[in-house]
Design goal:
By secondary structure, this protein is an alpha/beta fold. Helices cover 45% and strands 14% of the residues. Helix 9 (200-212) links the parallel strand 6 and strand 7.
């Protein structure tokens, strides 16, 4: 279990540094589906992402009906499911990873598998595996109270979602309901969809609204980030950014070349904003 939550420690340190240096580079969060591209090399991939400069890792729990995911993440989930990835494998895998990395690790997925597994059992196993936070995009803020007692008891952080359609009142409600960070969806639609370049002004105005109505949590931006250049127009308003579909797209392109992990590492390094 987490005596000291790695995510909270990282975010607190980053906020303190940002107070001293407003131009501080935002944190890079990477999303990868558990067991993708194959179970046997998943540990090597995770360690390589850590070494390449990731600050936080989101491990996706593959699910057969991923409503918010675009075709790229759907593909990775399907491949993971076909290879036998389930919650038990994920917990065991992350517990093994904890022997070699202390990067904050979050589990991201849909509430149905958690409910099927048993909410309390899920949180107990997640904490004992060394997971730091949980992201459940389809769980409304009003329902967070169902799971927060388990998270609080076991030292896990909950992440909330806001979207361009969220009202100021809604943003404030979500901010108060969670204690990890606010996952700010920059564009409407599924993951890996619309490019940010098409609507920079609207996105900046949205981020200003989120910043003005968020008093408790850091802000992480995701959906539509395809390169480090995409982050430049929004980094003033966020504490970090999230890359998922583009990373999986790169892995799909590089695997199984003999140096595919090195190719992925170079891709990640290029995301770091100088």
């Amino acid at each position: 279990m987490n005596n000291q939550n790695r995510l909270s420690t990282l975010l607190t340190q980053h906020q303190e540094k940002k107070a001293q240096n407003p131009k501080l580079e935002p944190l890079l969060t990477l999303f990868i589906t558990a067991g993708y591209p194959e179970k046997e090399t998943f540990h090597d991939l995770i360690r390589s992402l850590d070494l390449a400069g990731a600050d936080i890792l989101e491990i996706g729990m593959p699910f057969s009906d991923p409503l918010a995911d675009g075709p790229v993440i759907q593909m990775s989930s399907q491949k993971a499911l076909e290879s036998g990835v389930d919650l038990e494998w994920i917990f065991d895998s992350i517990q093994e990873l904890r022997k070699s990395t202390q990067i904050p690790i979050l589990l991201m997925g849909y509430f149905n598998p958690v409910l099927s597994y048993g909410v309390e059992n899920f949180f107990v196993k997640a904490a004992s595996a060394g997971i730091d936070g949980i992201i459940l995009p389809d769980l409304p803020a009003e329902e967070t109270k169902r799971i927060k007692p388990y998270a609080d008891k076991l030292g896990l952080k909950l992440i909330g979602f806001v979207t361009p359609t969220s009202t100021e009142e809604r943003i404030r409600l979500i901010d108060q309901a969670v204690d990890g960070f606010i996952y700010t969806v920059l564009v409407t639609g599924v993951t890996g969809g619309t490019s940010l370049k098409d609507s920079i002004d609207e996105i900046q105005n949205f981020l200003k609204k989120v910043r003005q109505n968020t008093t408790k949590n850091p802000i992480m931006a995701g959906f539509g980030i395809r390169s480090g250049q995409d982050v430049l127009p929004v980094k003033e308003w966020v504490d970090g950014y999230i890359v998922g579909s583009e990373l999986i797209r790169k892995i799909e392109q590089a695997y199984p070349d003999i140096n595919w992990i090195e190719q992925v590492q170079e891709f990640v390094k290029a995301f770091k904003i100088k």
